[in-house]
Amino acid sequence: MNHIIFVCDTCCANGEKPGGEGFAAALREAAPDDVEVRSVSCLNMCDEPLALALRASDKVAYLFAGVNPETDVADALELIRLYRTAPGGVIEDARSVGRLRFCLKGRIPAL
């Protein structure tokens, strides 16, 4: 099953440069082979940069915002690990993803 992680490459706080492409590159380098990391121009979470989404066939999808591209790489990789192994994509216990568990903005049911 191919898991896709979307990372907004235009998200940034006022007066700062976007950090999404560097964040996506760090995820690409460390993510398992069955995970595709895609940079996208907008996830419509501009008020809470940086945004990312997780999606896979027959799994729920998740949208996160307020991700820090400088400090949240390890927690994002743990999130990816949990998502890959979760039946139907439903993550029952997200404590291991640190502060990212508080960045969840939405969960979309599987198709």
Could you explain the architecture of this structure?
The protein is of the alpha+beta class and 111 residues long. The protein has one domain (3-108): Glutaredoxin (3-Layer(aba) Sandwich). Helices cover 22% and strands 23% of the residues. The chain has a 5-stranded mixed beta sheet with strand order 2-1-3-4-5. Strand 1 (3-8), helix 1 (20-30) and strand 2 (35-40) form a beta-alpha-beta unit. The protein is globular. The mean pLDDT is 94. It holds the Pfam family DUF1636. InterPro entries: DUF1636. It comes from Shimia abyssi.
Mean pLDDT: 94
Shape: globular
Cα-atom Rg, whole angstroms?
13 Å
What is the CATH fold-level name? Glutaredoxin
Strand order in the largest sheet: 2-1-3-4-5
Main sheet makeup: 5 strands, mixed
Helix count? 2
CATH architecture: 3-Layer(aba) Sandwich
Reading off the top of the CATH hierarchy, the class is best stated as: Alpha Beta
> Helix fraction?
10-25%
Organism: Shimia abyssi
Protein name: Putative metal-binding protein
InterPro entries: DUF1636
SSE blueprint and pairings:
Blueprint: E1 3-8, H1 20-30, E2 35-40, E3 52-56, E4 61-64, H2 73-85, E5 104-108
Parallel strand pairs: 1-2
Antiparallel strand pairs: 1-3, 3-4, 4-5
Keywords:
111 residues, alpha+beta, Glutaredoxin, five-stranded mixed β-sheet, 2 helices, DUF1636, Putative metal-binding protein
